């Protein structure tokens, strides 16, 4: 479907981040790895890289922030909080030197997996920001996604990303920031395909020129849907 492709200080969600550079062979440079817990059937997890604990008690909808690792292939394990065995995700993640990646832990138990995203930290062009969209809400199914500037209507427009399936990721979309201002407010709407009937509306999100963001749609544990915004570059 069109637009689909499978350093920011860490915002410390959960109980805490173990501040360490993780290495066990591989490259010689540094990379950055971030984990988002998006599985609504998993209440909390611990994150291990190369058999070392790097974050504990990560809650649903929270992320680790970027963790510094040695570039190359890293062994990522996601375990139920407090457990030392039976990881729910156990996979290799490869990052280039200075590269950044996000692993979205998604799915419904027992079918939980890690969706690996390659993050872009290249500064956008002047008077623009960048936005990537992820559908990690298993109950949503496929959705059209509209990114609309404040004061604009989605009724007459075409979706920014049509038919974004569950588990799919858009390319980075360019948002124009007026030259008369350094910020612009946008709203994101996930709608039923072929309609403008929103199943999730983010409300106003302020973007500054030069920022890169990722908006991830999630199941709301109380019913319906919610979202999180990840800072890829400030």
DSSP summary, beta strand count: 18
User: How much helix, percentage-wise, in residues?
Assistant: under 10%
Strand content: over 45%
Q: Characterize the biggest β-sheet.
A: 5 strands, antiparallel
Shape: globular
Structural class designation:
mainly beta
Question: Looking across the biggest beta sheet, what order are the strands in?
Answer: 1-4-3-6-7
**Low-pLDDT segments, ≥5 res:** 1-25
Averaged pLDDT:
89
> Radius of gyration in whole Å, from Cα?
18 Å
| Count of structural domains | 2
How would you explain this protein's 3D organization?
The protein is mainly β and 234 residues long. The chain folds into two domains: 16-119, Sandwich (Immunoglobulin-like); 128-233. It has no helices and 18 strands. The strands form four sheets. The chain has a five-stranded antiparallel sheet, with no helix packed on it. A hairpin with a 2-residue loop joins β3 (44-49) and β4. Mean pLDDT is 89; it is low at 1-25.
SSE diagram, text form:
Blueprint: E1 16-17, E2 30-37, E3 44-49, E4 52-59, E5 67-70, E6 72-80, E7 89-95, E8 100-108, E9 111-119, E10 128-135, E11 143-149, E12 161-164, E13 173-176, E14 183-191, E15 198-201, E16 205-208, E17 212-219, E18 225-233
Parallel strand pairs: 2-8, 10-17
Antiparallel strand pairs: 1-4, 2-5, 3-4, 3-6, 6-7, 8-9, 10-13, 11-12, 11-14, 14-15, 14-16, 17-18
Features:
single chain, 234 residues, Immunoglobulin-like, 5-stranded antiparallel beta sheet, 18 strands, 51% strand
Short summary of the structure?
By secondary structure, the chain is mainly β. The chain is 0% helix and 51% strand. The protein folds into 2 domains: 16-119, Immunoglobulin-like (Sandwich), CATH 2.60.40; 128-233.
